[in-house]
Amino acid sequence: MALLTPQGVKEVFQFQKPQGREHLRRLLNWEAFDELRDTRSSILLDTLYETVIFAVGKGFPWAEVVQAVKFTEELLKETKGCSITEAVTILGNKLGDYQSQFNTTRLLALCDYFHNTFIRHYKLYQYVLGQDQEVNLTVTHVEVRAPPQPLPLAEGTDGDLWRHKQQVAELSSAEVQKRVNLLLLKETLRLEQEHMLHETFGDDGARAQPRQPLGREALERLVSKAIHIQIACLQELLQYEIQVAFDILDLRLQKKTLSLNAPVPLLPSITGQVTREDLPKSNKTNKGKKAKAKK
Question: Which stretches are tagged as biased composition: Basic residues (predicted)?
Fold first, then answer.
């Protein structure tokens, strides 16, 4: 408390709260402490700092602000472990001891302040400041990644134009996927046709006698089966090709519609940027000039 001077409390008041608390700690000649682990010292420092703020707010001279901080520190030490009745008695006696330090108005203000803060929450003060606290603190280090540096605005794209390009790209991708699906179906049908023909001719070959030529009826039956298998696969492929052709035409029609309704990009001009609202006006102006030239 010897280092706490009127100039010192003035500096404490002029700082923001975090800097003011730290400056007050140095003036009180306290060692640095962990705010999270040493809650007792943190709350005690808060109490002394709030006394400074209260006293200055009530118009105490800087010298009396120092006395108010001293009064607070002594009161907290002397009431440690006492009952609330004993604490009220100690507060009254201490106010009497400090009558020569404050005038009546400021002494009453100091009395009201401690009655409304310290006495009203006396049990809480005693619980925190009067006994050791077991602190279970878990510290987790979390890596915070900053967002990537944005590109210059000059390299940006108008929102409507960007969305238009995305829609065109999606339609193009859908058309490519349709063609890929058609190729996959062709290959699947080819393999299925080969498998069915193999089963058909294999079964007939197994039933036929070794080195015995096929009769007319057997040959016609095998040819009929082969033609039926090929026609069935060809019919399925043809139906799918027709459907794919219609789908691709529909996708191309959508792309053409998008191209006709494409947003107009903003073009740089000599005096600045040309807005979309300016473009129709300039077109009308050009039409007017052409009409006059014809006349």
Answer: 284-295
Angle, helices 62-78/84-97, rounded to nearest 10 degrees: 150
E strand or H helix that includes residue 181 = helix 159-207
H/E segment holding residue 63: helix 62-78
Please determine, for residue 98, whether its predicted confidence score (pLDDT) is greater than 80.
yes
Measure the CA angle with vertex 177, ends 176 and 180; round to 5°.
Answer: 90
Spatial contact of 135 and 37, defined as CB atoms under 8 Å apart: yes
Q: Sign of torsion, CA 9 11 16 18? A: negative
Write out the two tokens for 159. Answer: 């929102």
Q: What is the pLDDT of residues 57-85, one digit of tens each?
A: 999 999 999 999 999 989 988 888 888 89
273 DSSP 8-state letter: B
Query: Pick the residue with more confidence: 106 or 195?
Result: 106
* CB 54, CB 113: distance < 8 Å: yes
Taking only the tens place, the pLDDT of each residue in 126-173 is 877 766 666 676 778 888 888 888 878 877 778 888 888 888 889 888
Q: How far, in whole angstroms, is CA 24 from its chain's centroid?
A: 38
Three-state SS string over 81-125 comes to CCCHHHHHHHHHHHHHHCCCCCCHHHHHHHHHHHHHHHHCCHHHH
Do 4 and 28 touch, CB atoms closer than 8 A? yes
| Residue whose pair of structure tokens reads 């009745």 in the numeric block | 85
User: Looking at the predicted structure, is the pLDDT value of residue 271 above 50?
Assistant: no
Residue appearing with tokens 């009067």: 130
What does the block give as tokens for 207?
């039933």
What residues have CB less than 8 Å from 101, skipping those under 6 apart? 64, 67
Mean per-residue pLDDT of the chain: 80
